[in-house]
Amino acid sequence: MGMQKPAAQKLFRIFMTLHARPLINLVFGIKAKKEPVIDWGLKHGMYAYEAKDAYGYAKKLKLYDIAPIADRITQDMLIVGANKDHFIDYRMVGREINMLKNVKSLTFRLFTDKEDAQNHCNVGNGKLVLDSICNWIEQINGGEN
Fold first, then answer.
1. pLDDT score at 2
2. Mean pLDDT of 134-141
3. How far apart are the first and last CA of the chain?
4. How far is Cα 145 from Cα 138, in angstroms, rounded to an integer?
5. Cβ pair 4, 91 in contact under 8 A
6. What's the pTM value of the predicted model, to 2 decimals?
7. Which of 55, 85, 102, 143 could staple 24 via S-S, CB 3.0–4.6 A?
8. Is 64 helix (H, G, I), strand (E, B) or coil?
9. How far apart are CA 117 and CA 115, in angstroms?
């Protein structure tokens, strides 16, 4: 869905803090009518997270926020991204990386259109992605199986 401007992100957080369900639903309803990707993302997210509206979807997404526990993660981490993901902007990964201060190691792998793995969930080149994940696991295990 692309990165939102910082002012829009701040306003959204304020609306969520105020539990402004009607306002959030109105804003997302307007955005969904203008942009098919937002419409799809909202409908898909509401279905996947069993939410009745945009506000409910946003509340459920908050349950998956890494921020409250990031400092307690101490194992090796692999973060995978896609440079043309229509839903998750890979440039947001810096926020997560900066929160993971206590990990044993951190690897970020950005798959690209040059590898045919640029799409959401890296659809297009699953073999490359799975091979990369398996290679990373072997590397952190010191080559052990």
1. 45
2. 96
3. 39
4. 7
5. no
6. 0.76
7. 55
8. coil
9. 5
